[in-house]
Structure formats: C-alpha cells, structure tokens
Design goal:
Blueprint lengths: L1 H32 L8 E6 L5 H13 L3 E6 L5 E6 L5 H20 L2
Antiparallel strand pairs: 1-3, 2-3
Helix pairs in contact: 1-3, 2-3
C-alpha cells in the first residue's frame, strides 16, 4: 500500500512539475517577446519545511529547472533557500506558490 501511495505521489509531482514548466515557459516567452521589458528581478529567502538533504536537493533542482527561477544557495541551517526570480511582484506570494506546489508534493513522495 505504501509503495502504491508513493508511486501515485511521484506521478503527481511529475504532473505538477510539467504544469509549472509549461506555465513558466509561457510567461518567460511572453516577457521576452514584449517590446518593452518590464520585469523586476530579485532575490528572496524562502524557509522550507523539508528536512533531508535529498528533499532539499530535489526542491532546488525543480526550482532551477523551472524557467525564470534559480536556487542560488541553501543556508547552513538547511532551512532557508535563496532564490533568484526573473520577475518578483510579491516574494511572499512566490514563496507560497513554491511551498504549495513543489514542497508539498515532495513531502507526499518522501513521507508517505
């Protein structure tokens, strides 16, 4: 039963990543093709609930693979990620979005 739960959670994580990849690719492409560049790049800190190195590494990789975002560093405490985003309208909202998509899905896979 646990294997089935983790497999389903892995499929959901893959679906979430593909959805985020498509949406962010579209947004980045739209911004690039605009005649006037109107982005607000920046760096923000995001606290994570993930504990293991594997979970944090997976989250960092998924963030880096999504166009427009890049994980710059993980703090020594392992709880804070420093993320560069191509367009930050609201850092809190972006952090919340990452937590509700990638972070939650990773916890479902690793803690099922």
């Amino acid at each position: 039963m646990v294997i089935l739960k983790r497999t389903w959670a892995g499929v959901k994580l893959l679906f979430i990543f593909n959805r985020e990849l498509f949406i962010s690719s579209y947004v980045v492409l739209r911004q690039i093709l605009q005649p006037k560049l109107s982005i607000r790049p920046g760096i923000f800190a995001m606290k994570t609930e993930l504990k293991s190195n594997w979970e944090i590494t997976l989250l960092s990789c998924l963030i880096c693979l999504t166009p427009g975002t890049l994980t710059l560093d993980v703090a020594g405490d392992g709880e804070t990620l420093y993320i560069h985003a191509m367009d930050i309208e609201d850092a809190e909202q972006l952090s919340h979005q990452i937590k509700n998509s990638f972070e939650r899905a990773i916890m479902e896979v690793t803690r099922a």
